[in-house]
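Listing S7. Sequence submitted for prediction.
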Amino acid sequence: MTLETVFTIARWAALAWIAQGVMRRSTAQSMQGAALFAITGALATAAGWAAGEFRRRGALKVAGHLRRRLAGALLPVTRRTRDTGPAEAALAMVEYVDDVAGYHAQVAPLRRSAPLCMLAVLAATAVLHWPAAIVLVLTSALIPVNMRLAGLFAQQGADRQQAATQRFNAIVLDSFRGLRTLRELGAAGRRGRILTRAAERVNAATMSVLRRAFLSGMIMDVVITFSIAVNATYTGMSLLGYVQVPHAPRLSLFTGLLVLLVCPMYFAPMRAMASAFHVRERAAVAAGAIRDIVEATPTEATPVARPRLSGPVGVALNAVRFRYAGADHDTIAADVEFTPGNWTAVTGASGAGKSTLLSLIAGMRLPSAGEVRLETTSGRQPPSLGESVWVGQRTVLLDATVRDNIRLGRLEATEQQIELAVDAAGLRAMIERLPGGLDARLGEGGWGVSTGEARRIAIARALLRGARLWLLDEPTAHLDATSERDVVKALRRATCGCTVIIATHSFALAAAADTVLAIDNGRLHHANLAGAR
Protein backbone atom coordinates (compact mmCIF):
# COMPACT_ATOMS: atom_id res chain seq x y z
CA MET A 1 0.00 0.00 0.00
CA THR A 2 2.89 2.37 0.68
CA LEU A 3 4.33 1.63 -2.75
CA GLU A 4 0.93 2.32 -4.29
CA THR A 5 0.89 5.72 -2.54
CA VAL A 6 4.38 6.59 -3.78
CA PHE A 7 3.53 5.64 -7.36
CA THR A 8 0.25 7.56 -7.15
CA ILE A 9 2.12 10.69 -6.01
CA ALA A 10 4.39 10.24 -9.02
CA ARG A 11 1.33 9.83 -11.27
CA TRP A 12 -0.21 13.07 -9.99
CA ALA A 13 3.17 14.75 -10.52
CA ALA A 14 3.07 13.57 -14.13
CA LEU A 15 -0.47 14.95 -14.50
CA ALA A 16 0.60 18.32 -13.08
CA TRP A 17 3.59 18.29 -15.46
CA ILE A 18 1.19 17.66 -18.37
CA ALA A 19 -1.02 20.54 -17.25
CA GLN A 20 1.94 22.88 -17.04
CA GLY A 21 3.13 21.77 -20.49
CA VAL A 22 -0.31 22.47 -21.94
CA MET A 23 -0.37 25.92 -20.38
CA ARG A 24 3.11 26.63 -21.81
CA ARG A 25 2.15 25.00 -25.12
CA SER A 26 5.16 22.73 -24.81
CA THR A 27 4.48 19.54 -26.75
CA ALA A 28 7.68 17.87 -25.53
CA GLN A 29 6.84 18.49 -21.88
CA SER A 30 3.29 17.21 -22.40
CA MET A 31 4.56 14.06 -24.11
CA GLN A 32 7.08 13.46 -21.34
CA GLY A 33 4.34 13.89 -18.75
CA ALA A 34 2.00 11.52 -20.63
CA ALA A 35 4.66 8.82 -20.78
CA LEU A 36 5.46 9.25 -17.10
CA PHE A 37 1.73 9.23 -16.28
CA ALA A 38 1.25 5.91 -18.11
CA ILE A 39 4.25 4.28 -16.44
CA THR A 40 3.45 5.44 -12.91
CA GLY A 41 -0.23 4.58 -13.41
CA ALA A 42 0.69 1.03 -14.37
CA LEU A 43 3.05 0.74 -11.41
CA ALA A 44 0.38 2.05 -8.99
CA THR A 45 -2.16 -0.39 -10.40
CA ALA A 46 0.29 -3.28 -10.10
CA ALA A 47 1.16 -2.30 -6.52
CA GLY A 48 -2.55 -2.09 -5.63
CA TRP A 49 -3.22 -5.49 -7.19
CA ALA A 50 -0.26 -7.04 -5.36
CA ALA A 51 -1.43 -5.57 -2.04
CA GLY A 52 -4.92 -6.94 -2.60
CA GLU A 53 -3.57 -10.37 -3.51
CA PHE A 54 -1.36 -10.47 -0.41
CA ARG A 55 -4.37 -9.46 1.71
CA ARG A 56 -6.51 -12.19 0.15
CA ARG A 57 -3.88 -14.86 0.69
CA GLY A 58 -3.23 -13.65 4.21
CA ALA A 59 -6.94 -13.79 5.05
CA LEU A 60 -7.17 -17.36 3.72
CA LYS A 61 -4.12 -18.37 5.74
CA VAL A 62 -5.45 -16.80 8.94
CA ALA A 63 -8.90 -18.34 8.42
CA GLY A 64 -7.40 -21.76 7.73
CA HIS A 65 -5.22 -21.61 10.84
CA LEU A 66 -8.12 -20.50 13.05
CA ARG A 67 -10.44 -23.19 11.70
CA ARG A 68 -7.79 -25.85 12.37
CA ARG A 69 -7.39 -24.55 15.94
CA LEU A 70 -11.15 -24.49 16.42
CA ALA A 71 -11.55 -27.97 14.97
CA GLY A 72 -8.93 -29.24 17.41
CA ALA A 73 -10.71 -27.52 20.30
CA LEU A 74 -14.22 -28.58 19.32
CA LEU A 75 -13.14 -32.14 18.50
CA PRO A 76 -10.39 -32.48 21.10
CA VAL A 77 -7.98 -35.28 21.76
CA THR A 78 -7.42 -33.77 25.21
CA ARG A 79 -9.76 -32.94 28.09
CA ARG A 80 -11.99 -29.90 27.90
CA THR A 81 -12.71 -27.55 30.79
CA ARG A 82 -16.10 -26.52 29.41
CA ASP A 83 -18.56 -27.61 26.72
CA THR A 84 -19.33 -25.52 23.64
CA GLY A 85 -22.87 -25.56 22.30
CA PRO A 86 -23.43 -26.51 18.66
CA ALA A 87 -24.82 -23.05 17.80
CA GLU A 88 -21.82 -21.29 19.35
CA ALA A 89 -19.43 -23.70 17.64
CA ALA A 90 -21.04 -23.17 14.21
CA LEU A 91 -21.04 -19.38 14.66
CA ALA A 92 -17.37 -19.43 15.63
CA MET A 93 -16.33 -21.73 12.80
CA VAL A 94 -18.18 -19.76 10.10
CA GLU A 95 -18.70 -16.11 11.07
CA TYR A 96 -16.16 -15.39 13.80
CA VAL A 97 -13.29 -16.85 11.81
CA ASP A 98 -14.23 -14.69 8.81
CA ASP A 99 -14.46 -11.60 11.05
CA VAL A 100 -10.94 -12.14 12.38
CA ALA A 101 -9.58 -12.98 8.93
CA GLY A 102 -11.27 -9.85 7.54
CA TYR A 103 -9.53 -7.76 10.17
CA HIS A 104 -6.14 -9.18 9.22
CA ALA A 105 -6.91 -8.60 5.53
CA GLN A 106 -8.21 -5.03 5.90
CA VAL A 107 -7.42 -3.30 9.17
CA ALA A 108 -4.10 -4.82 10.22
CA PRO A 109 -2.27 -3.95 6.95
CA LEU A 110 -3.90 -0.52 7.00
CA ARG A 111 -2.71 0.17 10.56
CA ARG A 112 0.85 -0.59 9.50
CA SER A 113 0.81 1.20 6.17
CA ALA A 114 -1.33 4.25 7.03
CA PRO A 115 1.41 6.15 8.93
CA LEU A 116 3.91 5.47 6.13
CA CYS A 117 1.44 6.56 3.43
CA MET A 118 0.58 9.77 5.29
CA LEU A 119 4.26 10.45 5.94
CA ALA A 120 5.04 10.00 2.23
CA VAL A 121 2.31 12.49 1.25
CA LEU A 122 3.39 14.92 3.97
CA ALA A 123 7.04 14.67 2.90
CA ALA A 124 6.14 15.29 -0.75
CA THR A 125 4.00 18.29 0.25
CA ALA A 126 6.76 19.70 2.47
CA VAL A 127 9.28 19.43 -0.37
CA LEU A 128 6.89 21.23 -2.73
CA HIS A 129 5.64 23.89 -0.30
CA TRP A 130 6.23 23.49 3.44
CA PRO A 131 3.42 25.87 4.57
CA ALA A 132 0.91 23.56 2.86
CA ALA A 133 2.33 20.63 4.87
CA ILE A 134 1.85 22.60 8.10
CA VAL A 135 -1.78 23.30 7.11
CA LEU A 136 -2.30 19.56 6.57
CA VAL A 137 -0.97 18.72 10.03
CA LEU A 138 -3.00 21.43 11.79
CA THR A 139 -6.29 20.62 10.07
CA SER A 140 -6.00 16.89 10.82
CA ALA A 141 -5.71 17.38 14.61
CA LEU A 142 -9.42 16.65 15.21
CA ILE A 143 -9.43 13.36 13.30
CA PRO A 144 -7.88 11.05 15.98
CA VAL A 145 -10.51 12.15 18.52
CA ASN A 146 -13.30 11.32 16.08
CA MET A 147 -11.70 7.97 15.30
CA ARG A 148 -11.60 7.06 19.00
CA LEU A 149 -15.26 7.95 19.45
CA ALA A 150 -16.12 5.92 16.38
CA GLY A 151 -14.33 2.94 17.88
CA LEU A 152 -16.23 3.17 21.17
CA PHE A 153 -19.58 3.38 19.38
CA ALA A 154 -18.67 0.45 17.12
CA GLN A 155 -17.60 -1.75 20.06
CA GLN A 156 -20.90 -1.28 21.90
CA GLY A 157 -22.86 -2.17 18.78
CA ALA A 158 -20.67 -5.19 18.02
CA ASP A 159 -21.19 -6.62 21.53
CA ARG A 160 -24.97 -6.37 21.19
CA GLN A 161 -24.91 -7.87 17.71
CA GLN A 162 -22.85 -10.83 18.90
CA ALA A 163 -25.23 -11.58 21.76
CA ALA A 164 -28.29 -11.32 19.49
CA THR A 165 -26.70 -13.53 16.82
CA GLN A 166 -25.69 -16.23 19.30
CA ARG A 167 -29.21 -16.29 20.74
CA PHE A 168 -30.78 -16.49 17.28
CA ASN A 169 -28.49 -19.33 16.17
CA ALA A 170 -29.26 -21.31 19.31
CA ILE A 171 -33.02 -20.89 18.77
CA VAL A 172 -32.76 -21.95 15.11
CA LEU A 173 -30.70 -25.03 15.96
CA ASP A 174 -33.02 -26.10 18.77
CA SER A 175 -36.06 -25.52 16.55
CA PHE A 176 -34.75 -27.76 13.77
CA ARG A 177 -33.73 -30.43 16.26
CA GLY A 178 -37.16 -30.48 17.83
CA LEU A 179 -39.21 -29.87 14.70
CA ARG A 180 -41.06 -33.17 14.88
CA THR A 181 -41.85 -32.69 18.57
CA LEU A 182 -43.04 -29.12 17.97
CA ARG A 183 -45.39 -30.34 15.25
CA GLU A 184 -46.77 -33.14 17.41
CA LEU A 185 -47.44 -30.70 20.27
CA GLY A 186 -48.94 -28.04 17.99
CA ALA A 187 -46.26 -25.61 19.14
CA ALA A 188 -44.69 -24.88 15.73
CA GLY A 189 -46.55 -21.58 15.34
CA ARG A 190 -45.46 -20.34 18.76
CA ARG A 191 -41.88 -21.37 18.04
CA GLY A 192 -42.08 -19.52 14.73
CA ARG A 193 -43.02 -16.33 16.56
CA ILE A 194 -40.05 -16.78 18.88
CA LEU A 195 -37.79 -17.19 15.84
CA THR A 196 -39.26 -14.07 14.28
CA ARG A 197 -38.61 -12.00 17.40
CA ALA A 198 -35.03 -13.32 17.64
CA ALA A 199 -34.44 -12.47 13.96
CA GLU A 200 -35.82 -8.97 14.54
CA ARG A 201 -33.39 -8.47 17.41
CA VAL A 202 -30.50 -9.53 15.15
CA ASN A 203 -31.70 -7.12 12.46
CA ALA A 204 -32.01 -4.29 14.98
CA ALA A 205 -28.51 -4.95 16.33
CA THR A 206 -27.07 -5.09 12.80
CA MET A 207 -28.78 -1.85 11.79
CA SER A 208 -27.43 -0.24 14.96
CA VAL A 209 -23.89 -1.21 13.95
CA LEU A 210 -24.44 0.14 10.44
CA ARG A 211 -25.88 3.41 11.76
CA ARG A 212 -22.91 3.87 14.06
CA ALA A 213 -20.49 3.16 11.22
CA PHE A 214 -22.38 5.55 8.92
CA LEU A 215 -22.44 8.31 11.55
CA SER A 216 -18.73 8.02 12.36
CA GLY A 217 -17.92 7.94 8.64
CA MET A 218 -20.07 11.01 8.00
CA ILE A 219 -18.36 12.98 10.79
CA MET A 220 -14.99 11.88 9.44
CA ASP A 221 -15.95 13.03 5.93
CA VAL A 222 -17.01 16.45 7.27
CA VAL A 223 -13.71 16.90 9.10
CA ILE A 224 -11.67 15.73 6.10
CA THR A 225 -13.67 17.88 3.67
CA PHE A 226 -13.08 20.92 5.88
CA SER A 227 -9.34 20.17 6.04
CA ILE A 228 -9.09 19.77 2.25
CA ALA A 229 -11.09 22.99 1.75
CA VAL A 230 -8.75 24.94 4.03
CA ASN A 231 -5.72 23.63 2.19
CA ALA A 232 -7.27 24.31 -1.22
CA THR A 233 -8.19 27.85 -0.17
CA TYR A 234 -4.67 28.54 0.98
CA THR A 235 -3.18 27.08 -2.20
CA GLY A 236 -5.54 29.04 -4.46
CA MET A 237 -4.93 32.34 -2.66
CA SER A 238 -1.17 31.70 -2.80
CA LEU A 239 -1.32 31.08 -6.55
CA LEU A 240 -3.28 34.33 -6.99
CA GLY A 241 -0.74 36.19 -4.88
CA TYR A 242 -3.11 37.16 -2.07
CA VAL A 243 -1.20 35.13 0.52
CA GLN A 244 2.56 34.92 0.82
CA VAL A 245 4.23 33.24 3.80
CA PRO A 246 7.63 34.74 4.61
CA HIS A 247 10.62 32.58 3.57
CA ALA A 248 8.28 30.17 1.76
CA PRO A 249 8.92 29.30 -1.90
CA ARG A 250 6.46 30.78 -4.35
CA LEU A 251 3.90 28.34 -5.73
CA SER A 252 4.00 27.63 -9.42
CA LEU A 253 1.22 26.02 -11.45
CA PHE A 254 3.02 22.68 -11.20
CA THR A 255 3.63 22.76 -7.43
CA GLY A 256 0.23 24.27 -6.64
CA LEU A 257 -1.67 21.72 -8.71
CA LEU A 258 0.37 18.83 -7.29
CA VAL A 259 -0.26 20.03 -3.72
CA LEU A 260 -4.00 20.07 -4.44
CA LEU A 261 -3.91 16.61 -6.02
CA VAL A 262 -1.99 14.88 -3.20
CA CYS A 263 -3.86 16.63 -0.37
CA PRO A 264 -6.81 14.14 -0.39
CA MET A 265 -4.30 11.28 -0.35
CA TYR A 266 -3.09 12.46 3.06
CA PHE A 267 -6.54 11.88 4.54
CA ALA A 268 -7.39 8.70 2.61
CA PRO A 269 -5.77 6.30 5.14
CA MET A 270 -7.62 8.07 7.99
CA ARG A 271 -10.93 7.73 6.16
CA ALA A 272 -10.21 4.05 5.51
CA MET A 273 -9.32 3.52 9.18
CA ALA A 274 -12.58 5.16 10.29
CA SER A 275 -14.58 3.02 7.87
CA ALA A 276 -12.86 -0.09 9.18
CA PHE A 277 -13.43 0.64 12.87
CA HIS A 278 -16.54 -1.55 12.98
CA VAL A 279 -14.49 -4.32 11.29
CA ARG A 280 -11.91 -4.02 14.06
CA GLU A 281 -14.47 -4.15 16.85
CA ARG A 282 -16.33 -7.10 15.29
CA ALA A 283 -12.99 -8.89 15.03
CA ALA A 284 -12.20 -8.12 18.69
CA VAL A 285 -15.52 -9.63 19.78
CA ALA A 286 -14.99 -12.64 17.50
CA ALA A 287 -11.42 -13.17 18.71
CA GLY A 288 -12.63 -13.20 22.32
CA ALA A 289 -15.24 -15.86 21.54
CA ILE A 290 -12.71 -17.99 19.64
CA ARG A 291 -10.19 -17.61 22.47
CA ASP A 292 -12.75 -18.84 25.01
CA ILE A 293 -13.36 -21.98 22.95
CA VAL A 294 -9.69 -22.70 22.28
CA GLU A 295 -8.61 -22.07 25.87
CA ALA A 296 -11.29 -24.50 27.09
CA THR A 297 -9.05 -27.23 25.67
CA PRO A 298 -5.76 -26.93 27.57
CA THR A 299 -2.56 -27.59 25.68
CA GLU A 300 -0.95 -30.75 26.91
CA ALA A 301 2.48 -32.12 26.35
CA THR A 302 2.71 -34.75 23.64
CA PRO A 303 1.42 -37.89 25.36
CA VAL A 304 3.82 -40.76 25.80
CA ALA A 305 2.83 -43.66 23.58
CA ARG A 306 1.39 -46.42 25.69
CA PRO A 307 0.07 -49.85 24.79
CA ARG A 308 -3.61 -50.29 23.96
CA LEU A 309 -5.64 -51.51 26.91
CA SER A 310 -5.96 -55.27 26.71
CA GLY A 311 -7.58 -57.76 28.99
CA PRO A 312 -10.10 -56.83 31.68
CA VAL A 313 -10.07 -53.16 32.67
CA GLY A 314 -10.89 -51.99 36.17
CA VAL A 315 -11.74 -48.40 37.09
CA ALA A 316 -10.87 -46.76 40.41
CA LEU A 317 -12.01 -43.33 41.59
CA ASN A 318 -9.89 -42.28 44.56
CA ALA A 319 -11.29 -39.32 46.53
CA VAL A 320 -12.60 -37.88 43.27
CA ARG A 321 -14.38 -34.53 43.43
CA PHE A 322 -15.76 -32.62 40.50
CA ARG A 323 -17.40 -29.20 40.64
CA TYR A 324 -18.55 -27.13 37.67
CA ALA A 325 -17.31 -23.55 37.43
CA GLY A 326 -19.58 -21.25 39.43
CA ALA A 327 -21.34 -24.11 41.26
CA ASP A 328 -21.58 -24.07 45.06
CA HIS A 329 -21.39 -27.83 45.53
CA ASP A 330 -19.65 -30.88 44.10
CA THR A 331 -21.45 -32.73 41.32
CA ILE A 332 -19.35 -35.84 41.99
CA ALA A 333 -17.79 -36.86 45.33
CA ALA A 334 -16.86 -40.51 44.94
CA ASP A 335 -14.56 -43.24 46.20
CA VAL A 336 -15.47 -46.33 44.21
CA GLU A 337 -14.03 -49.20 42.20
CA PHE A 338 -15.61 -50.87 39.17
CA THR A 339 -14.88 -54.57 38.86
CA PRO A 340 -13.08 -55.62 35.65
CA GLY A 341 -15.25 -57.55 33.19
CA ASN A 342 -18.51 -56.67 34.98
CA TRP A 343 -21.59 -54.70 33.99
CA THR A 344 -22.24 -51.88 36.47
CA ALA A 345 -25.40 -49.81 36.23
CA VAL A 346 -25.42 -46.33 37.80
CA THR A 347 -28.92 -45.08 38.56
CA GLY A 348 -30.17 -41.81 39.97
CA ALA A 349 -32.37 -38.82 39.33
CA SER A 350 -31.90 -36.64 36.27
CA GLY A 351 -29.09 -34.17 36.94
CA ALA A 352 -27.60 -36.31 39.71
CA GLY A 353 -24.26 -36.51 37.87
CA LYS A 354 -24.39 -39.82 36.00
CA SER A 355 -23.17 -38.38 32.67
CA THR A 356 -20.52 -36.33 34.46
CA LEU A 357 -19.25 -39.49 36.13
CA LEU A 358 -18.93 -41.22 32.76
CA SER A 359 -17.09 -38.21 31.29
CA LEU A 360 -14.53 -38.37 34.13
CA ILE A 361 -13.94 -42.08 33.48
CA ALA A 362 -13.67 -41.46 29.73
CA GLY A 363 -11.02 -38.77 30.27
CA MET A 364 -13.20 -36.01 28.83
CA ARG A 365 -12.94 -34.02 32.05
CA LEU A 366 -10.34 -33.61 34.76
CA PRO A 367 -11.51 -34.08 38.35
CA SER A 368 -11.35 -31.04 40.61
CA ALA A 369 -9.63 -33.25 43.18
CA GLY A 370 -8.56 -36.86 43.52
CA GLU A 371 -7.66 -39.16 40.68
CA VAL A 372 -9.27 -41.56 38.20
CA ARG A 373 -7.24 -44.63 37.28
CA LEU A 374 -7.71 -47.45 34.81
CA GLU A 375 -6.33 -50.72 36.15
CA THR A 376 -5.07 -53.52 33.91
CA THR A 377 -2.72 -56.43 34.28
CA SER A 378 0.08 -54.16 33.01
CA GLY A 379 -0.45 -51.50 35.67
CA ARG A 380 -2.49 -48.36 36.46
CA GLN A 381 -2.81 -45.28 34.28
CA PRO A 382 -5.03 -42.21 34.01
CA PRO A 383 -7.79 -42.33 31.38
CA SER A 384 -7.37 -40.63 28.03
CA LEU A 385 -9.71 -40.08 25.13
CA GLY A 386 -9.95 -42.99 22.72
CA GLU A 387 -9.26 -45.76 25.24
CA SER A 388 -12.95 -46.41 25.87
CA VAL A 389 -16.06 -46.41 23.72
CA TRP A 390 -19.10 -44.29 24.43
CA VAL A 391 -22.66 -45.09 23.39
CA GLY A 392 -25.11 -42.34 24.24
CA GLN A 393 -28.78 -41.44 23.94
CA ARG A 394 -28.38 -39.89 20.49
CA THR A 395 -26.85 -41.75 17.59
CA VAL A 396 -25.64 -39.55 14.77
CA LEU A 397 -26.11 -41.15 11.36
CA LEU A 398 -24.11 -39.51 8.60
CA ASP A 399 -25.35 -39.03 5.04
CA ALA A 400 -23.39 -42.11 3.97
CA THR A 401 -23.80 -45.84 3.48
CA VAL A 402 -24.54 -48.24 6.32
CA ARG A 403 -21.01 -49.62 5.93
CA ASP A 404 -19.42 -46.16 6.26
CA ASN A 405 -21.60 -45.34 9.26
CA ILE A 406 -20.52 -48.54 11.01
CA ARG A 407 -16.79 -48.12 10.35
CA LEU A 408 -16.82 -44.46 11.35
CA GLY A 409 -14.49 -45.10 14.29
CA ARG A 410 -12.21 -47.46 12.39
CA LEU A 411 -11.93 -46.70 8.70
CA GLU A 412 -9.41 -49.47 8.07
CA ALA A 413 -11.82 -52.21 9.24
CA THR A 414 -12.02 -55.16 6.89
CA GLU A 415 -15.24 -56.49 5.40
CA GLN A 416 -15.05 -59.55 7.64
CA GLN A 417 -14.72 -57.36 10.76
CA ILE A 418 -17.71 -55.27 9.66
CA GLU A 419 -19.80 -58.42 9.12
CA LEU A 420 -18.88 -59.71 12.58
CA ALA A 421 -19.85 -56.37 14.10
CA VAL A 422 -23.17 -56.46 12.23
CA ASP A 423 -23.99 -59.90 13.60
CA ALA A 424 -22.91 -59.08 17.14
CA ALA A 425 -25.00 -55.91 17.16
CA GLY A 426 -28.08 -57.70 15.85
CA LEU A 427 -28.20 -55.68 12.61
CA ARG A 428 -28.49 -58.60 10.19
CA ALA A 429 -32.29 -58.32 9.80
CA MET A 430 -32.05 -54.58 9.12
CA ILE A 431 -29.24 -55.06 6.57
CA GLU A 432 -31.27 -57.68 4.70
CA ARG A 433 -34.33 -55.43 4.68
CA LEU A 434 -32.56 -52.40 3.16
CA PRO A 435 -32.10 -52.32 -0.65
CA GLY A 436 -28.37 -52.54 -1.21
CA GLY A 437 -27.64 -53.99 2.22
CA LEU A 438 -24.49 -52.45 3.65
CA ASP A 439 -24.35 -50.12 0.63
CA ALA A 440 -27.78 -48.60 1.38
CA ARG A 441 -27.50 -44.89 2.05
CA LEU A 442 -28.67 -43.48 5.38
CA GLY A 443 -29.19 -39.95 6.59
CA GLU A 444 -30.66 -36.99 4.69
CA GLY A 445 -32.13 -38.17 1.41
CA GLY A 446 -31.40 -41.81 2.23
CA TRP A 447 -33.15 -44.65 4.05
CA GLY A 448 -34.50 -44.16 7.54
CA VAL A 449 -33.94 -46.53 10.42
CA SER A 450 -35.69 -46.82 13.76
CA THR A 451 -34.21 -45.47 16.99
CA GLY A 452 -33.41 -48.99 18.14
CA GLU A 453 -31.66 -49.80 14.85
CA ALA A 454 -29.66 -46.58 15.13
CA ARG A 455 -28.53 -47.64 18.62
CA ARG A 456 -27.42 -51.00 17.27
CA ILE A 457 -25.42 -49.20 14.57
CA ALA A 458 -23.72 -47.31 17.42
CA ILE A 459 -23.00 -50.63 19.12
CA ALA A 460 -21.47 -52.01 15.91
CA ARG A 461 -19.28 -48.89 15.66
CA ALA A 462 -18.12 -49.37 19.23
CA LEU A 463 -17.45 -53.05 18.67
CA LEU A 464 -15.12 -52.27 15.77
CA ARG A 465 -13.03 -50.06 18.05
CA GLY A 466 -12.02 -53.12 20.05
CA ALA A 467 -11.93 -51.22 23.37
CA ARG A 468 -12.29 -53.18 26.61
CA LEU A 469 -14.04 -50.38 28.51
CA TRP A 470 -17.57 -49.39 27.45
CA LEU A 471 -19.37 -46.33 28.81
CA LEU A 472 -23.09 -46.26 28.05
CA ASP A 473 -25.14 -43.12 28.70
CA GLU A 474 -28.85 -44.02 28.66
CA PRO A 475 -28.38 -46.38 25.67
CA THR A 476 -32.02 -47.51 25.75
CA ALA A 477 -33.67 -44.14 26.31
CA HIS A 478 -36.82 -43.48 24.23
CA LEU A 479 -37.08 -47.12 23.15
CA ASP A 480 -40.14 -49.32 23.50
CA ALA A 481 -39.87 -52.52 25.51
CA THR A 482 -39.15 -54.74 22.48
CA SER A 483 -36.46 -52.45 21.06
CA GLU A 484 -34.91 -52.06 24.51
CA ARG A 485 -34.74 -55.82 24.94
CA ASP A 486 -33.06 -56.19 21.52
CA VAL A 487 -30.50 -53.48 22.32
CA VAL A 488 -29.67 -55.05 25.69
CA LYS A 489 -29.12 -58.43 23.98
CA ALA A 490 -26.90 -56.80 21.38
CA LEU A 491 -24.89 -55.06 24.09
CA ARG A 492 -24.45 -58.30 26.00
CA ARG A 493 -23.10 -60.04 22.92
CA ALA A 494 -20.83 -57.14 21.95
CA THR A 495 -19.32 -56.58 25.41
CA CYS A 496 -18.46 -60.12 26.37
CA GLY A 497 -15.35 -59.90 28.58
CA CYS A 498 -15.44 -56.09 28.66
CA THR A 499 -15.98 -53.72 31.57
CA VAL A 500 -19.28 -51.89 31.08
CA ILE A 501 -20.49 -48.88 33.08
CA ILE A 502 -24.03 -47.77 32.30
CA ALA A 503 -25.84 -44.59 33.33
CA THR A 504 -29.52 -45.42 33.14
CA HIS A 505 -33.04 -44.82 34.40
CA SER A 506 -34.21 -48.13 32.94
CA PHE A 507 -35.15 -50.88 35.37
CA ALA A 508 -34.76 -53.49 32.63
CA LEU A 509 -31.23 -52.37 31.81
CA ALA A 510 -30.28 -52.15 35.49
CA ALA A 511 -31.63 -55.67 35.96
CA ALA A 512 -29.23 -56.92 33.27
CA ALA A 513 -26.23 -55.50 35.19
CA ASP A 514 -24.00 -57.46 37.59
CA THR A 515 -23.82 -54.52 40.02
CA VAL A 516 -26.17 -51.62 40.58
CA LEU A 517 -24.96 -48.34 42.11
CA ALA A 518 -27.14 -45.38 42.95
CA ILE A 519 -25.85 -41.82 42.82
CA ASP A 520 -27.22 -39.31 45.30
CA ASN A 521 -25.72 -35.85 45.90
CA GLY A 522 -22.72 -36.98 43.88
CA ARG A 523 -22.04 -39.98 46.14
CA LEU A 524 -22.23 -43.59 44.94
CA HIS A 525 -23.59 -46.46 47.00
CA HIS A 526 -24.84 -49.96 46.28
CA ALA A 527 -28.53 -50.24 45.49
CA ASN A 528 -30.98 -53.05 45.03
CA LEU A 529 -33.25 -53.35 42.00
CA ALA A 530 -36.18 -51.95 43.92
CA GLY A 531 -34.14 -48.79 44.50
CA ALA A 532 -33.17 -48.73 40.84
CA ARG A 533 -36.84 -48.64 39.86
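Caption to Listing S7: primary sequence and predicted C-alpha coordinates for the chain studied. Residues 115 and 306 are 55 Å apart (CA to CA). The mean pLDDT is 79.
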